[in-house]
Structures are given as structure tokens and as C-alpha cells.
Design a protein that fits this description.
With 346 residues, the chain is an alpha/beta fold. The protein is 28% helix and 24% strand. Strands 3, 4, 5, 6, 7, 14 and 15 form a seven-stranded mixed sheet that branches. It has a six-stranded parallel sheet with strand order 10-9-8-11-12-13, with helices on both faces. A two-stranded antiparallel ribbon has the order 1-2. The chain starts with a strand and ends with a strand. Belongs to the zinc-containing alcohol dehydrogenase family.
Amino acid sequence: MKALVYGGPGQRSWAEVPDPAIVDPTDAIIRVDTVTICGTDLHILGGDVPTVAPGRVLGHEAVGTVTAVGPAVTTVAPGDRVLASCISACGRCRYCREGSYGQCRGGGGWILGHLVNGVQAEYARIPFADLSTYLLPAGVSDEAAVLLADILPTSYEVGVLNGRVRPGDTVAVVGTGPIGLAAIRTARLFSPGHIVAIDRADSRLEAAKRAGADLTLKPDQDPLAAIGRLTGGLGADVVIEAVGTPASFELCATLIRPGGHLANIGVHGKPATLHLEDLWIRNVTITTGLVDTSSTPTLLRMLAGGQLEVGDLITHRFPLDAMAEAYETFADPARSGALKVALSRA
């Protein structure tokens, strides 16, 4: 079969690799029907995730059809249409029993496209299939469902829930790529008073308005003063970092009010300065996190019920074998205007 293979920093190829096979009794094999590319994949290619070894098949967001299951799998069967979660869960370790699947110590966590071969391929092995796949209702499209593999639960859990967004809050989202836009969408579920979106790109700020942002700003437009005008000088109740650079994190720390929450979602490849000399006295809570995907069943029900609109986050579509073109498009949003890309089997 063909798959997107990581060759080391800056190197990738759509290459022939062996077909996946059942290794453990809890495995399933899926035919990949729709897959997407994540900003984390770009971080891997940039050398920011050194735990990914050359030769690894990348990708951790897919919808597919089950073609085979191991003898211990009981919840899915060949022919089932499933969402493959970005997080694998053994279901037995302390963290899984607490619902913290992202920290699984039984061989799961974020392993697809990281520690084991991923889903940017024609077929993929899904470990711990009973807890790491979700049956899809007939009315949910592949393109909508694939956004629940990672960006929707990540933005909701690591951004909105960790940030403790409440009704009436002023929420600032720094970075309005796919994760930031999903954070805006899911923050709206809690009826905040204001959502302020901050980004450098006009196209992404326009997308933020469509997602529900009340005010859009560029970093050089003095967001601190603008948020101060909205809040009587206090600052934002919740700030969500959705970029993963030192500058974006440090901007977030200036925007938060005393007693507020700064929720970091971005994947950081470089150190950021934490100005504790300013923050220690302000009762600020800073959270980090890897998604657990414990919210995926809830989000899937909301999607099926029409309570969550996500389809417009996909801006570019490709056949599965156009992986190289899709990566080029996704990696250059200033030129392409890309948010999320979808690659589907013909």
C-alpha cells in the first residue's frame, strides 16, 4: 500500500510500505476513507517532536471502514464505518480508569503517527480498537467526522474546559488556525460575553468571525488595550493559546486578568519565557494538556444532532494519493488560505 512516510526533519514521501496486519488481539485494521493533516504533523516535519523516528507513517486523524479485527475486539466488526481517534487507550491503567486517555501508561496515548504507524495511508492498524474507535451514525459525513478525531476534542478539552469558560466571560483566542477556530466554536457553547480572536492573517480572522468571534485583531493592533476596553481594564477571563510559539504564549500572559485562566493548546518546539515576576501575585492559572478524547462521544452526539457545525473548517479537498500537494497547501496557509484539508479515497 501507499503511505506518507517521515524521513527525518523536512523529509516526507508518499511511498510504498507493507500492509498493516493484526499484531495484538485488541487491534483493528481499517481502510482509510478520509484523512486529514494536523499542525502537529508539521511540527514533526520541523523537527520539534524528536520521538518520531524516520520511517514512521504519519497521521492521527481518520475515518475508515473496518476490514479486520483481533479476537479480543467486541465493539466493532468488519464493514463498520468508524472514527479513528488520535488517542489510543488501553482502558486498564490508572490514567485510563480516570478518563485521562492521553496519559495512558498501558501502551496507548498519542501513539498513531508518533510511536506507531499512523493513518495517512491506504490502510491502518488501530490499537485498542474497542476504546479508540467510534461507530459513526449514517447521517454524519466523513469530512465532518474526521474533525472529531483531534481538533474538536482538543480545542474543547484542552482549551475551553481547561480554561473554565463560563457564561458572560471574555475569552481571547490567540491563533485562529483550525484549533483556534474550533476553540471559538466550542467556547460558544458556554455563552461567553465576548470572544476576541487574534491572528496575523486576514483570511483566518475572517474565518474567526464566521466561527463566532465578536472582535478580531492582529497582534500589532494593541489587543491588551482592546480587551481592556471590553472588561473595564481587567483583562480576559480566559485566554486560549492556539499557536505554539514563544511570542504567542507571552502575548497570552499579558492579556489575562487577575484570577483568570490561560489554557495552552499549542505544540511548543522552543522554550517560552514565563514572567513569574508579573504573574505570581495575580492568581493566574496556567494549564497545559494533551487531549484525552473523553469528550468525543458527546461531541459526536452533538454533531449528529445538528448542534455543532464544523464542515466549513475544511477548505481544500484532495484524492488520497495527492498527499504531497495536500501537505504543500496546508503548510502554506498565507498563500493557499487553507484551514483543514481533507483527503478521501476515490
